[in-house]
Amino acid sequence: QVPDALISQAQEFQRAMMMYTCAIREVKTKLEVLNDELSIKNQRNPIEMIKSRVKKPLSIVEKLQRRNLPVTLESMMNNLDDVAGIRVICSFVDDIYAVANMLVSQDDITVIAIKDYIKNPKSNGYRSYHLIIEIPVFFSEEKKNLRVEVQIRTIAMDFWASLDHQLKYKKDIGAAADEISEDLRQCAEVIAATDQHMLQIRKSIEEKSARQSK
Ligand code: 0O2
């Protein structure tokens, strides 16, 4: 027979995960509203895609252990900022900043942290704009402020990060590791340059069509 304490812990965990899922839904709706409005205003979508996930129990335990933190529900809720995660894939680099600013200026959102890995890429070449925000979610008997990690990046940055993520799980590559890391970093540079180029092309088209319509 399963002990009552275990059942009660499992139920509490399930409730916490439900809360994070609801927080994701709230933030996702905000992003969809912005995308709908901007697509009419600018005649193009700044957001290509929105992906989301709640962190898997095993990843939660591993992260708490890695940080030498207690593996409890309370510790998870107090210490982990990425239990609820949203990834926003934008068309162009300037869309990232536009969407981020519009999101954080909403008065029910509190910004906890910002990491701009676009202005300051990681040494391996990783680029993305990370926001940790807190949002109130109203449940039947309480209002809960919940943290959500929002990663905003272009299609090109997402392409690189997805492949980088896959490659990291490959077998030990021993002595070739440095060379491969350098190759990956160079790919990230090429991708970043292409992103800038695509932005210039869009701006030049916008200028030309604005002149034509005068
Ligand atoms: P997953 O499976 O995507 O959730 P930490 O969260 O402790 O690892 P920190 O400094 O709190 O580190 O967070 P950081 O670096 O701002 O963001 C961590 C998340 O960003 C990662 O989550 C990845 O999603 C993404 N990320 C950061 N660096 C890289 C990178 O070099 N390559 C790729 N592909 N993604 C990266 P998780 O939990 O590690 O993974």
Automatic annotation (TrEMBL):
Biochemical pathway = Purine metabolism; ppGpp biosynthesis; ppGpp from GTP: step 1/2
Q: Which SUPFAM superfamilies match?
A: Nucleotidyltransferase
| Pfam families to which the protein is assigned, alphabetical | RelA_SpoT
RelA/SpoT domain ranges (all copies): 52-175
Extract the InterPro entries matched here.
GTP_Pyrophosphokinase, NT_sf, RelA_SpoT
Task: Please give the name of this protein.
Answer: GTP pyrophosphokinase family protein
Organism this protein belongs to: Ventrimonas faecis
